[in-house]
Amino acid sequence: MDIVDSKHIATKHLPKRWTRKDEWYNYKWMADDLHVLITIDETSYTGERMGTTHPMSWYHEFDGGRAFYTELGHTKESFTTDTLYLQHLLGGIQYAIKK
User: Fold this and answer.
1) How many whole angstroms from its chain centre is CA 48?
2) Contact 26, 40 (CB under 8 A)
3) Which of 60, 68, 90, 97 is deepest in the core (most CB within 10 A)?
């Protein structure tokens, strides 16, 4: 995966190119106002493709609040031994609660 925004609290600790195993999703539709944090290199896996930009994590403001989304976290290791993922998740939560 490629870190698109390395200044955000959810990604500032991640390497520019982050390699990990997970379950990858494709999206049928993406809103225009999303600020993408992470994309995936579609040549790095087999399966369906989304095209030139395939977001994995993003955030946006909506109706006075904040929303954070990460597609990651489908493995047991994500929550037991993957400290980079856990920091990513914590950063997303901190962003959403405006901490």
Assistant:
1) 18
2) no
3) 68
